[in-house]
Amino acid sequence: MHEPLALAGLVGVVVHADQVAKVDPVSATVKANVTVGSGPAGLAFTGKLLWVANRNSDTVSQIDPARDAVVGTVVSSPAPLGVAFDGYNVWVRSEEH
User: Fold this and answer.
1) For FRET with 61, which of 9, 55, 75, 90 sits at 20 to 30 Å CA-CA?
2) Strands (E), 1-97
């Protein structure tokens, strides 16, 4: 399933079991593929970093969109499904086991 996210003139789309693609919305071309954890399920942008919940690896990846690279990985509670930013904190929604 592809999940679009508007992001500073670009759109991020979950495209594979372990990647997020940066897509130019004007030309509809992929500008970069970034490998994250297994099963990316949710995205949030903080104004600086794109956070990706990786459901199957129990982690959250931090992507620097200027570098198209993962700059950090946070171990989360089991099966993170979504990520939200409230202006100060990043919140992770996880599936209960």
Assistant:
1) 9
2) 4-7, 10-16, 19-24, 29-35, 40-45, 50-54, 59-64, 69-75, 80-85, 90-94
The CA-CA-CA angle for residues 57, 61, 65, to 5°, reads 150
What is the chain's mean pLDDT, rounded?
86
- pLDDT tens-place string over residues 33-47: 999 999 998 999 999
Q: Which two tokens stand for residue 10?
A: 């670009």
Residue with tokens 């089991």: 78
The pLDDT value given to residue 28: 86
Q: How far is CA 92 from the centre of its chain?
A: 12
Residue type, 19: Q
Q: Which two tokens stand for residue 65?
A: 């969109």
